[in-house]
């Protein structure tokens, strides 16, 4: 019992089957801490923005617990919305910065490699996997092609759209000549009637909601059914593979 | 240019005293948001400058702009019309009619080439070669182009001339077109509203005459002094909005208390105008003060923004009753159902796989 094999460091509850599994599992470090932090901050801010945004378009029932002077229900709701929007802007800018200085996988969010033949090949395979035609998915270190496309259209494009329209709406209250107005006021003038801006910003919210539904479902499903870890990867940064087959 | 009387000359000949004239100058300065230092400037301009000739033409419209204009209290439209400007052609206000009137128009254009202001009320319909609006036997489009050719500047009165208004609402059968899309080579000031506030109209003219230049315009070409802020920004019911106190139904207690009309579809948050500061009819009231939400009449395409009584606009592209929430919730529902079905098939498939691998063993 004095052998010094790595197995010895295992807790007692490891069965022979478990030990087999450990030997076939591999892992790779994918997401650096700024990417992971951004992901969760972004998720929290978007959730808050959806909630408060909903109550800006359809306010809570009227409350009458104080004189209007001492009551600030709609005001606080709007404040949270604006504050989250501003934090989201800063976080998104930091994330773009990290795409330049971070590792290869930090850049995947910002482009769709349509020029790459293998990308299309993998994409059709992934579609077949989701359509229950392919028996096994491929192993991906970063995003699979379908996920990459979804990230790009819903997040990179979607977030940019929400930030642009959001700041244009904020510029209305900030007033002409203010910084938000100088930055995004042109968009309000381009649209003409800002009621339209409200409508498209509102539709954008549903765009993001639909992404959230698909994103969370796909992440959990892939975590269970694919050959690699998903959810924990966004927490620890490590992608674990469940088998050691090369393909 | 032939000798024209100054504003002051005309005012004196109207029997207005020097004292009343100075009072009028200070009132005008106040209306324009200028300091007392500008009063002598205005007085000086009026004493020395010849009156600016104005041609006022009417296209597709309802004349509500003229109706509003002649009700101006500060300065009185009478003062503006009789003393400040030389309104040489306005087919609804002038005494002349028919050939006489058309001759007056041509006279003014010839006499003051490049020096007159063209005020346009209404807009030209472009379909069928402009046959939907005929003035003096010719399409209004022709009259507008002819009068605009030698104008110094153009004022687009009201929502019609500025944005198109009701006659340009979808599907716009006559192709009613705002002035700036027909005349593209002249400086144009938009004074939108249906109608614009009288004091805003006379204020814009007074400014142009006093300082001999266009007022500062915003990105959409509207005078910044009247259109740089939303109704919402200066609304006296704004504290109720921030407090979250809304009128929920037209006849409820909150309506009687004068709470915010946001939930009743008030377009104040997206409407740029001076109603909540200047108000109407000598500052008596404005729509929100009278208990009805703003309908956004000074905004581009305000007839096409769904009901006046909804905050979340109807999107008719998706059916008469749809809005962003209904469209979004339907799409989310479809995606949700798709996910549920996908979960079910995934579960069945993996169960099947397990049984198969068991059988193989």
UniProtKB/TrEMBL annotation, chain A:
Give GO MF terms, alphabetically.
Answer: electron transfer activity; heme binding; iron ion binding
Entry annotated with the keyword Electron transport: yes
Q: Tell me if Transport is a UniProt keyword of this record.
A: yes
The residue ranges crossing the membrane are: 37-58, 79-100, 146-170, 203-220
**GO BP terms in the entry:** respiratory electron transport chain
Q: Which GO terms describe its cellular component?
A: plasma membrane
- Membrane topology per record: Multi-pass membrane protein
Q: Give the principal location in a single coarse category.
A: membrane
Show where the Cytochrome b561 bacterial/Ni-hydrogenase domain sits.
Answer: 30-237
Q: Mind listing the UniProt keywords for this protein, alphabetically?
A: Cell membrane, Electron transport, Heme, Iron, Membrane, Metal-binding, Transmembrane, Transmembrane helix, Transport
PANTHER family with a match to the protein in the record: NI/FE-HYDROGENASE 1 B-TYPE CYTOCHROME SUBUNIT, NI_FE-HYDROGENASE 1 B-TYPE CYTOCHROME SUBUNIT-RELATED
Q: Which family does it belong to?
A: Belongs to the HupC/HyaC/HydC family.
Protein name, entry field = Probable Ni/Fe-hydrogenase B-type cytochrome subunit
UniProtKB/TrEMBL annotation, chain B:
Entries under InterPro entries matching the protein:
Cytochrome-c3_hydrogenase_C, NADH_UbQ_OxRdtase-like_20kDa, NiFe-Hase_small_C_sf, NiFe_Hase_small_N_sf, NiFe_hydrogenase_ssu, TAT_signal, TAT_signal_bac_arc
Q: Could you say which residues form the signal peptide?
A: 1-45
Q: Name one Pfam family in it.
A: Oxidored_q6
Query: Reaction(s) catalyzed by this protein?
Result: H2 + A = AH2
Q: Which residues bind [4Fe-4S] cluster 2?
A: 232, 235, 260, 266
Cytochrome-c3 hydrogenase C-terminal domain location, by residue?
Answer: 227-308
| Residues spanning the membrane | none
Keywords, sorted A to Z:
3Fe-4S, 4Fe-4S, Cell membrane, Iron, Iron-sulfur, Membrane, Metal-binding, Oxidoreductase, Signal
What residues does [4Fe-4S] cluster 1 bind to?
62, 65, 160, 194
User: Binding residues for [3Fe-4S] cluster, per the UniProt record?
Assistant: 275, 294, 297
Tagged with keyword Signal: yes
Q: What Gene Ontology cellular-component terms does the record carry? A: [Ni-Fe] hydrogenase complex; ferredoxin hydrogenase complex; plasma membrane
GO BP term, example: anaerobic respiration
- Gene Ontology molecular function, alphabetical: 3 iron, 4 sulfur cluster binding; 4 iron, 4 sulfur cluster binding; electron transfer activity; ferredoxin hydrogenase activity; hydrogenase (acceptor) activity; metal ion binding
Protein's cellular compartments: Cell membrane
| Known EC number | 1.12.99.6
What family does this chain come from, according to its entry?
Belongs to the [NiFe]/[NiFeSe] hydrogenase small subunit family.
Q: What is this protein called?
A: Uptake hydrogenase small subunit
């Amino acid at each position: 019992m004095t052998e010094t094999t790595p197995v010895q460091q295992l807790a007692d509850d490891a069965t022979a089957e478990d030990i087999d599994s450990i030997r076939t599992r591999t892992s790779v470090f994918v997401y650096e801490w700024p990417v992971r932090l951004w992901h969760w901050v972004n998720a929290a801010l978007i959730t808050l923005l959806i909630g408060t945004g909903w109550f800006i378009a359809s306010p809570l029932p009227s409350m009458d617990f104080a004189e209007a002077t001492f009551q600030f229900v709609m005001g606080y709701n709007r404040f949270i919305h604006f504050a989250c929007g501003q934090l989201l802007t800063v976080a998104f800018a930091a994330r773009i910065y990290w795409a330049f200085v971070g590792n290869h996988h930090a850049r995947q969010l910002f482009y769709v490699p349509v020029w790459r033949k293998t990308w299309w090949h993998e994409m059709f395979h992934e579609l077949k996997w989701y359509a229950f035609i392919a028996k096994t998915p491929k192993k991906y270190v970063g995003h699979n092609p379908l996920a990459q496309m979804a990230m790009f259209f819903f997040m990179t494009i979607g977030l940019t759209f929400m930030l642009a329209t959001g700041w244009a709406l904020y510029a209305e209250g900030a007033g002409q000549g203010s910084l938000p107005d100088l930055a995004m006021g042109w968009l309000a003038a381009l649209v003409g009637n800002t009621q339209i801006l409200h409508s498209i910003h509102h539709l954008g919210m549903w765009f993001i909601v639909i992404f959230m539904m698909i994103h969370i479902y796909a992440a959990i499903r892939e975590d269970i059914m694919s050959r690699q870890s998903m959810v924990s990867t966004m927490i620890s940064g490590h992608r674990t593979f469940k088998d050691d087959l090369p393909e | 240019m032939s000798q024209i009387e100054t504003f002051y000359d005309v005012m004196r000949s109207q029997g207005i005293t020097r004292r009343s004239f100075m009072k009028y100058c200070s009132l005008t300065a106040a209306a324009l948001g200028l300091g007392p230092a500008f009063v002598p400037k205005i007085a000086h301009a009026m004493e020395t400058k010849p009156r600016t000739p104005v041609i006022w033409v009417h296209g597709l419209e309802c004349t509500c702009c003229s109706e509003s204009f002649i009700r101006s209290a500060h300065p009185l439209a009478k003062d503006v019309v009789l003393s400040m400007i030389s309104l040489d052609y306005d087919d609804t206000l002038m005494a002349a009619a028919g050939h006489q009137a058309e001759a007056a128009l041509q006279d003014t254009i010839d006499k003051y080439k490049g020096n007159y202001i063209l005020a346009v009320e209404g807009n030209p319909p472009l379909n069928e070669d402009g046959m939907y609006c005929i003035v003096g036997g010719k399409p209004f489009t022709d009259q507008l182009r002819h009068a605009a050719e030698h104008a110094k500047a153009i004022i687009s009165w009201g929502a019609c001339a500025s944005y198109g208004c009701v006659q340009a609402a979808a599907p716009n059968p006559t192709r009613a077109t705002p002035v700036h899309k027909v005349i593209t080579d002249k400086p144009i000031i938009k004074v939108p509203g249906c109608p614009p506030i009288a004091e805003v109209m006379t204020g814009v003219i007074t400014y142009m005459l006093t300082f001999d230049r266009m007022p500062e315009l915003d990105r959409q070409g509207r005078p910044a002094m009247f259109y740089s802020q939303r109704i919402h920004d200066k609304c006296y019911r704004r504290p109720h909005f921030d407090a979250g106190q809304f009128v929920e139904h037209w006849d409820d207690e909150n309506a009687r208390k004068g709470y915010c009309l946001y939930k009743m579809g008030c377009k104040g948050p997206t409407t740029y105008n001076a109603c909540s500061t200047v108000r109407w009819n000598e500052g008596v009231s404005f729509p929100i003060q009278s208990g009805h939400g703003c309908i956004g009449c000074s905004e581009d395409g305000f007839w096409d923004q769904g009901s006046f009584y909804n905050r979340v606009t109807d999107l008719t592209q998706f059916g008469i009753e749809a809005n962003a929430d209904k469209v979004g919730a339907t799409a989310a529902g479809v995606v949700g159902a798709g996910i549920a079905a996908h979960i079910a098939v995934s579960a069945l498939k993996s169960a099947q796989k397990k049984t198969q691998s068991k059988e193989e063993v």
